[in-house]
Amino acid sequence: MDIQDARVLARELMDEHGLGDWTLVLDRAKRRAGVCRYTDRAIGLSAHLTRLHTLDQVRDTVLHEIAHALAGPRAAHGPRWRATATAIGASPDRCLPEDAARIPGSWLGTCPRGHTVDRHRRPSRVLSCRRCGPGFSVDSIFTWTHHGVPTDPGEGYRRELAGILTSR
């Protein structure tokens, strides 16, 4: 969706639902589409994801965050928030649908069985594959590439990995 059109849409919806004194912020988030910042009285949208999402997805994201603002900070994604979201026409789901466009991270972790996870930031801790089993498993530790090149995540990571492997 065009960013300027998203700004107009968000402002109209915020005003319609009584958030005229709240601000709209476009940020650089790559994992979450929106955020409600109660202390700042601001609704934030990811500029990156807004550009990738459809009008309906952006509308639902804005309404999702408006529901947070109306339900209050303690509502989280509980019954009060869900009721508010439904009442204003937002999906009462916590996250975007699985098929929504996303931005893949430049760091790719691969477990020994071939399952992958991506990250936008360099991993600082040793992680293992959740699909291979619950909890941490030495047998399912991810190896990392950055932009497709096998990469060492750094000294702290190496130290942690060495400690894990020697205590085996």
TrEMBL record:
Q: Which GO terms describe its molecular function?
A: metallopeptidase activity
Quote the InterPro entries the UniProt record gives: SprT-like_domain
Q: What region holds the SprT-like domain?
A: 1-139
Question: Matching Pfam families, A to Z?
Answer: SprT-like (PF10263)
| Biological process annotations from GO | proteolysis; response to stress
Which keywords belong to this entry? Hydrolase, Metalloprotease, Protease
Q: What is this protein called?
A: Putative SprT family Zn-dependent metalloprotease
Query: What organism, scientifically named, is this protein from?
Result: Janibacter cremeus
